[in-house]
Amino acid sequence: MPENQKAPVVSKSVLVPFILITSLFALWGFANDITNPMVSAFKKILELNNTQASWVQAAFYGGYFTMALPAAYIVKKYSYKRGIIFGLVLYATGALLFFPATAMENYFFFLLALYILTFGLAFLETTANPYIMAMGDEETATQRLNLAQAFNPLGALSGLFVAQTFILGALQSDDVDANGNSIYETLSETAKAAVKTSDLTVIRNPYVALGIFVLVMLVVISVVKMPEKKEDKNSVGLWDSIKRIFKKERFVGGVLSQMFYVGAQIMCWTYIYQYAENLGIDNRNAVNYAYAALGIFLAGRFLCTYLLKFINSGKLLMLLAMLAIVFCSGAIFIEGMTGLYSLVMVSFCMSLMFPTIYGIALNGLGDDAKAASAFLVMAIVGGAFMPILQGLILDIGGSGYADVRILGVPEVNFSFVLPLSCFLIVGIYGYRTFKVYSKA
């Protein structure tokens, strides 16, 4: 290639495999955002407190932590394609387990189904992210990953649409009377049991349909020839890769930043429903604000992918983290709809973060990227335990969202101090990327 000619982001020779693997980004985005509203839904149907309901996210994102390293081992030992096939099998299994979970009406079984479903997502993310980066020149790897990740919000928007249209809009446990009080809480035990059975069935159906669709994707990817970077027989093992990558500050900082970023994202997208409910907006209508957040996130992803051509990725990461801190402060200290709008705008700042942290952390690792990718996916565990911490703040004065005031604002507002702190850590990583790592 001539020196003055830039390498293409995606070459024609890998266009079909690139499209198929990119579709997986939408597929796990769908799972993420059909599940976020389930925290509030399960809370009402099963009459849980905020901390108990937050275990939905603990189960969902805990699966990433559990399975990411085994996924890296399988990918390193076999191939990217094999890792994706394993992931799709586990994804479908978890989704289809919603059928027996509904029959048993057991909250633990639902959590187990989500846990297994995310075993599959861990395989897909551990495999697909470095696979996309490997489909071309290393110079354009971060741009290519940002392009693929741009389709993740499309899946997320689809997940929200299904949640709003086929789940939240059909839940009887969410019905209120003319005074805005819950009807479900006033029912007799027999009537409440009937509503519980009906509502759990409403939740079940989209997940079972999703499981069937994932099986179709499994068949398609199984029969299509995919490019593979064959493992050198003399290449070092997984443990040697792990020892080597943990000596690199850029990578270790990326893992920590990714953990706090994902925690911030999941808190902002999970508790936007509780924030809206405190303003008198029911769950079905609160989805409209989640739509707006994802729409802004999607637009930001494409815009920031373009801006990466002109601005150092670390510098842009730092600037967006600083802006996220400003919007989080608005969500905390500005009560009313303006605070909600500020919370929605945080999503613009988050649009760049995941793929850029990922790309910075993996830069220059070569074949060690397979092992490194596993730890970056394990970092998604931030989305498991941080929502629980936010749920504990919400439960300080009771199961409501404005039982007490902290620093002069309702506890639901104050709880967003957690994502604010996370963005501070991301901003520091961005600063070190363009001030230290880029010059190293």
TrEMBL record:
Q: How does it sit in the membrane?
A: Multi-pass membrane protein
**Which residues are listed as membrane-spanning?**
12-31, 55-75, 82-101, 107-124, 145-167, 207-224, 251-274, 286-304, 316-334, 340-362, 374-394, 414-431
Output the NCBIfam families linked to this UniProt entry: fucP
| Highest taxon above the source species | Bacteria
Q: What is this protein called?
A: L-fucose:H+ symporter permease
Give the main location: membrane
- InterPro entries given in the database record: Lfuc_symporter_FucP, MFS, MFS_trans_sf, MFS_TsgA-like
Where, per UniProt, does this protein localize? Cell inner membrane
Which species expresses this protein natively?
Flagellimonas spongiicola
- Lineage, top ranks: Bacteria, Pseudomonadati, Bacteroidota, Flavobacteriia, Flavobacteriales
Q: Which UniProt keywords apply?
A: Cell membrane, Membrane, Transmembrane, Transmembrane helix
> Gene for this protein?
fucP
